[in-house]
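One record is given unchanged without comment:
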Amino acid sequence: MEKSIQSYNNSQSPEEKKICDLLADSIDAVLNSSESKIWHAHPVWFIDENPIVGYSKQKLGWRLMFWSGIDFEEEALTVHGKKFKDASIFYTSVEQINVKDLKRWLKKSKAIQWDYKNLIKKKGKLVRIK
């Protein structure tokens, strides 16, 4: 696990750290050639500088967000907003995380990508790259 992400996870409560560690370890296992870092104060994984998946603490719990998740066609991932292609799921305990589902979503995140990296260059227009 990348050091800044481990520090981020370590700064959480014991129960929240379990959630974060399971998410980070699962993401690292499937997206093993990706870059990961703290981006906008939250752990995020990138493929070719394009954000793929990340997690953050919110009122509803821990939000696991896939930048291109709307196209995964997964019922458990709820869509947020209409302008972008993100989809998320919330967790409040480590027992809620279905690792089999998570691995499937992560595999889809490698195969289905929208170009967020060049969003500003393209004046806010998203283009599918995979």
Remarks:
- Residues 14-30 form the longest helix (17 residues).
